[in-house]
Design a protein that fits this description.
The protein has about 240 residues and is an alpha/beta fold. Helices cover about 20% and strands about 30% of the residues. It is built from 6 helices and 12 strands. It is globular, with a radius of gyration of 18 Å. Pfam families: FAD_binding_6 (PF00970), NAD_binding_1 (PF00175).
Length: about 240
Amino acid sequence: MAPAAVRRRLTWQRAEVVQVARESARATRLTLAPPDWPGHVPGQHLDVRLTAEDGYAAQRSYSIASPPRPAYVELVVERLPDGEVSLYLTEVLVPGDLLELRGPIGGYFVQPDGGAPVQLIAGGSGVVPFLSMLGHHRAGDGDVRLLYSARTDVDLIGRAELAQADGAVHVTLTRGAPAGWSGLTGRVDAAMLAAVTVPPARDPRVLVCGPTGFVEAVARELVGLGHPPEQIRTERFGSTGGT
């Protein structure tokens, strides 16, 4: 990539907040309009910076939830009880505000090119980058599937994207299912992976995103089922958002 293009992506800009919408019991979707948006690849993220009047600044990274498109970009922010940035973004921010951001950033945990099947496996808010991939997939072709583990029905993120993906998505709830639930229940284990994900014989690219414990356990089970470690890419975050 040319140095000028890199500088452009890593330069802070002030984006207008177009919409703030409740996404789930603990998450909010932000629609932003950066004045100079270069476009993104599904799986990339943005840096968001809040700066107080006294100069104190706090910065966080958030996966991009929307598929590639001009003018607008969407983030889904999970509210953390002690998160100074997430509390502001989910409880204070309103349409018309300006938000400092830079990006898109990242080239490792992105939707693979080529015709190989792609298996996405998410725990909690780890589903956010996969929403971008599902939206992008609908505009193209290929075999892209998602296994998504959430605590309860009210914790689900991306209901619209999940519904539009038809049979390509399996959702499992780990802490109780509502009446009439027709999806899976229980934690992701070897038996569930073998039953609903792309088998290793088809040599899929596998992307796993979620809390550290979830990602490590799933990656271990995938290797045990016969998936080559080099075909598995992981993205993990702390201990929050567990399932």
